[in-house]
Amino acid sequence: MVKAWCLALCLCLSGCLWGCGGSGESAAEGNGFYFDTEISIQITGKDPEELLEGCFSLCGQMETVFSRTREDSELYQVNHRSEDHVLLSEDLAAVVKTGIEFYELTGGKLDITVGPLCEIWDFTGEKNEPPSQEEIREALEKVDGSSIRLEGRILYFERQDTILDLGALAKGYISDKLKEYLKAAGVESALINLGGNVMTVGSKPDGSPWTVGIQKPFAPRGTYEKTVSVEDRAVISAGTYERYYEWQGQQYHHILDPDTGYPARTEYAQATIISSSGLLGDALSTSCLLLGREGAEALTGQFPDTELIL
């Protein structure tokens, strides 16, 4: 049995990335573990170490909003509510709103009420064994994206057993928040990598575009399918190789089909979105992987500021 924790995207370290920028500017780089994955942040600007500390502090705050498993998180409290409606924070409401929108746009394929299925498959734990058909059937009965309604910041539930999972959206939103924080501090050059969700702030310190490598599925880390040059944009991939395990000769990946309760039978191993919004890129990448080429091209065609790579 094998569990792979691959980064969907890796920074191509071609040339010198961290020469000094303008007067008084220096560079800082840090790594951490948040959102069940390794992250790295690189900043060039004034007082970059202080800004780096602020970024990691913001990541910690976002974990207390979006974690489904941390008992002190807002999402955990929402999932263990006693009422049929909950007042959400601005952060949680923004991501839930996008989830509901993409439920409609994808005909139900992107469904943030998939939490019961995520719990029994448990790709972040040590189980490494698929659930039984009976467990899947029982979990599927609780999955219904049409049973939630958001009015302003108030989320209404038709069912008490609805459990939300925002894993397909949260990191993209958090990358937007980190970029917003850095830009407000005057940073013009930074790179944020949240376990493969890459967000660039401006260009490299020397003024050239960032070069981001798109990981080749199931190949050793650092083996690129292709590279892209971007400035001030997000490059986000969803892939069946990111989290998976093998059981009795069959591979089970973490992208679940809300119609069947099993890992989705995907046409491609990876979908990558290049966009100015991390949240949009996150939502689109998973959606496109679930929809296949025809559906993916139709969906991304509704967002002219995006590029799709399958």
Structure, explained:
This protein is an alpha+beta fold. The chain is 30% helix and 27% strand. It contains 7 helices and 16 strands. It has a 7-stranded antiparallel beta sheet with strand order 3-4-8-9-12-15-16, with helices on one face. Strands 1-13-14 form a 3-stranded antiparallel beta sheet, with no helix packed on it. β8 and β9 form a beta hairpin. α1 runs antiparallel to α6 and α6 crosses α7. The longest helix is centred in the last third of the chain and has 23 residues. The protein is globular. The N terminus is likely disordered.
The geometry reads as globular
Radius of gyration computed on alpha carbons: 19 Å
Question: Strand arrangement, largest sheet?
Answer: 3-4-8-9-12-15-16
Q: What's the helix count?
A: 7
Residue share in β-strands: 25-35%
Report the order of strands and helices.
Answer: EEEEHHEHHHEEHEEEEEEEEHE
Work out the helicity level: 25-40%
Main beta sheet = 7 strands, antiparallel
Number of strands: 16
* Overall average pLDDT: 89
Structural class: alpha+beta
Poorly predicted runs are: 1-22
Distance between the termini: 28 Å
